[in-house]
Amino acid sequence: MSWFVYVIECRDGSLYTGIAIDVAKRYAAHVAGKGARYTRSHPPARLLAAFPHPDRSSALKGEHAMRRLSPEAKRSLCAQAAAATAAPDL
Asked: Greater confidence, 32 or 82?
């Protein structure tokens, strides 16, 4: 079972970082106001990226490392992840 560290951009431009097994389900909970306290007062606008980890322990370590980054560094990392998963132009 894989765990993920995910980054959400909130409507006010702030970023929220969390971990989950099912990112889509967790994001839906945030949108519905049933997620974290932070996303209840800062509603999510979009999911920026999700980074896979082999287990919960490494996901927690990844989340901790992600939270220590500046918002600009988080956005850059998410943009790189999005570019890496985008389909190549043929």
From this structure: 32
| Residue 48 reports pLDDT greater than 60 | yes
> How far from the centroid of its chain's Cα atoms is residue 90's Cα?
29
Closest CA to 47 of 72, 88, 18: 18
Supply 80's token pair. Answer: 């790189």
The model's pTM is 0.91
Q: How confident is the model at residue 46 (pLDDT cuts 50, 70, 90)?
A: very high
Q: Where are the domains of the chain?
A: 3-85
- What is the homologous superfamily of the domain 3-85 according to CATH? GIY-YIG endonuclease (3.40.1440.10)
Q: What are phi and psi of 89, to 5 degrees?
A: -75, 130
* 48 closest CA partner among 4, 3, 2, 1: 4
